[in-house]
Specification:
Order of helices and strands: HHHHHHHHHHHH
Largest sheet: none
Low-confidence stretches: 299-320
Distance between the termini: 59 Å
Number of strands: 0
CATH topology: MetI-like fold
CATH architecture: Orthogonal Bundle
Strand content: under 5%
Helix content: over 70%
Radius of gyration: 28 Å
Number of domains: 1
CATH class: Mainly Alpha
């Protein structure tokens, strides 16, 4: 007896509620933006009064962050090379540096640099403010040296020393992620260790370290607010100096919101830059299939925009 089996197809249920939720989401978003815009407009006088000063303080914050990150990159590279050294003593020193710095709060480290190491150096005749003042006197520009220059100096050193420890592990992981066979091939071609590291390993490690590096830079911009305890007139201290004397709590809250918006205006472009660089540098490491998919997506986008692109066949993509 022959049995017949009937196969029934189940049609997927349409989710009619998804467009409603999307429309509701954009409606709530539009209402929130309109409400926030009205909130800013209702405090336009405060914006006009305080925003120029906050932007000046933001420039100081950006300057501190950039200098600190440059020094942190130098310390991170030195620390990463030390962590990968053949000598156990150098590896041990680098390991202690990384673990001690990462295991203690950054605020404690800043206070230690300013009130600890700074006072010790001051008793031995080294004062950053006096040194900078005398140096700028040669150029007849000593008025440019702020009174809180010592706070700037030790604050930048503290931030650099702290983030150098984190970048040490970032760079070490990036270097170790590069295939060792490439370094061996470079050595077999006659390159020495320095040339191999400079021309083969580091260029590939840079692509891997961009996302965590950018994240740490954004965090450093925010941690620069801790320099307010050292008397540095950066964005956080300027915001607090304007907000704290106000009696009206609504005005006080708005000043802090305005300061937070300035921080957002500094940090958000860095996030976009990190995504752009990661996608840009990652193209060279795509497989042939990924390159074809990316090319098809570019062609589709160009067709939608009415542009002409040069087309390549999939066979040409595989041959690459």
């Amino acid at each position: 007896m022959q049995q017949t089996q009937t196969i029934t197809t189940v049609e997927p249920r349409t989710r009619n509620w998804l467009p409603v939720i999307n429309a509701l989401y954009y409606l709530v978003l539009a209402i929130a933006l309109i409400g926030f815009g009205y909130y800013l407009y209702s405090n336009l006088s405060l914006i006009t009064l305080y925003l120029p000063f906050l932007l000046q303080a933001a420039g100081i914050t950006v300057g501190i962050s950039v200098v600190s990150m440059v020094l942190a990159v130098i310390l991170g590279l030195i620390g990463a090379l030390a962590r990968l050294s053949r000598f156990a003593l150098i590896r041990g020193i680098a390991l202690v540096y990384v673990e001690v710095v990462r295991g203690t709060p950054i605020l404690v480290q800043l206070l230690l640099w300013y009130y600890g190491i700074g006072q010790v150096l001051s008793t031995h005749g080294f004062d950053p403010y006096t040194f900078a003042f005398n140096f700028m006197t040669v150029f007849q520009s000593n008025s440019l040296v702020p009174l809180a220059f010592s706070g700037f100096f030790y604050g930048i050193i503290g931030l650099s020393f702290n983030y150098g420890a984190y970048l040490t592990e970032v760079f070490r992981a990036g270097i170790e992620s590069v295939n060792k066979g490439q370094a061996e091939a470079a050595l077999s071609l006659g390159m020495n260790s320095r040339q191999t590291m400079r021309h083969i390993v580091l260029p590939q490690a840079v692509r891997i370290t961009i996302p965590p590096f950018t994240n740490y830079f954004i965090t450093l911009v925010q941690d620069s607010a801790l320099l307010t305890v050292l008397g540095v007139a950066e964005l956080e201290q300027t915001t607090g100096a304007f907000a704290d004397p106000l009696i009206d709590p609504n005005q006080k809250l708005f000043i802090y919101i305005l300061g937070a918006m300035v921080y957002l205006a500094i940090c958000y472009p860095l996030s976009l830059l990190a995504r752009f660089l990661e996608a840009r540098l990652g193209r060279a490491y795509q497989t042939s299939g990924e390159k074809i998919d990316a090319l098809k997506a570019d062609m589709l986008t160009a067709d939608m925009l009415g542009k002409q692109v040069v087309s390549f066949s999939e066979d040409e993509g595989d041959s690459e």
